[in-house]
Amino acid sequence: MPNNDFRRLRGSRSPAEFAAAVRRAAREIGEQVACDARYIGRVEAGEIRCPNYAYERVFLYMFPGLTLADLGFSARETVRGRGARTTTTPSHSDEESDVLRRAFMTSGTATMAAASLGLGTAPGASAAAHPPAPAALPGTPRRVGEAEVSAVEDAVRQIRLLDDRHGADGLYKRAAQPLRTAYALLDASTTSRRAMADRLHTGAGELALSVGWLAHDSGRFDDARSHYAEALATARVAGDPALEAHAFSNSAFLARDTGRPREAVRAAQAGQRAAQHVASPRLLSLLTLREAGGWAGLGDRAGCEQALVRAKFQFERGTADADPEWMSFFGEAELEGLEAQCWSALGDWARAARHARRAAALQDPHFTRNLALYSAELADDLARAGAPDEAAAVGQGVLDLLEEVQSARVRTMLSETTRVLLPHRRSPSVAPFLTRHANTSRSGA
């Protein structure tokens, strides 16, 4: 049954405009939701009878004085078929895991359900509590329905949310199983609806990119390259330029991180060609920043500066309805952070530090991993720019963040910074940081 109450609240705004308002409201209260026009459409069509806890908090914040019933939703206990929890408040990731369990159990694909339990576990929890399940797909092709496709899409969102909050290291192995299941659905299932098939291809490709990023950020570069290539192949098969641009963006990033700057330039330029078919200036901006990073890695200052100018021009054109959902992280903070990396690669440490400082100051603290990343970049730039005391102070803040973020990339950056600071180890400001870092590294934290 359509949710007409929710539709009336949207008013004259388009689904994309309303989704943008939902994301803004979430940021205002420290929540993070990957809301897009498709999600709004699913709510209005009645497919989402009750929102998860994160969306509930956002909607009630947006419409003070109204209840979930006023918004056209069903009571949570009637949707779940069990009493509402009263003793504890479930985490957002628990709620997302429950969505995945229900959808994939209903479809008969128990593999995803088991994997979802693993994703819902807090980073650092014992993996033995959630052993991987063997593949349990039907032996003959079957039709794919809304439940299967939506569960793949929800898995992508869940992985991104958990990564933003906790980093990649504790998630990668658990995220690989949903990816295998998604591609098994592609191989073993059929659907008579082109739109459903397109969504399944796009969802599987985005899931490959999300899992690839977890591999990338946790230092598993060969795995990351494989996942990115898989996503690119899926994009080509599906004829999906937005997915293709995303795959090239991640491939360019990986090439730069692994010392292949010329490949980074080529991949970024290929991504820009694909993005010409997507009406998203911000997507073009990000891909041009990837190109700038490649030129910086090649030591080509002029090429880097030209790309940065183009990237800023596209960025200043603003957001658009066609902006991909995965780009929710790409705001002014990321723009500054990527420019800082360019100047760092070119050896202009003072300029790099200025941009890294802006990135850290602009970053929404809810994106914990990105805040740790920008701060680690700032600490390294300051150390190399001849400001060891300030670098150590920023480094202490990064160590604080690493108590809740698991990112091999950030830890590697911080280790490089400590090596730069070793000549200043007798400084009363630097010594405590070096000691704490050494103790943290020995403890494996």
From TrEMBL:
InterPro entries in alphabetical order: TPR-like_helical_dom_sf
Source domain of life: Bacteria
Identification of the protein by name: Transcriptional regulator
Origin species: Streptomyces agglomeratus
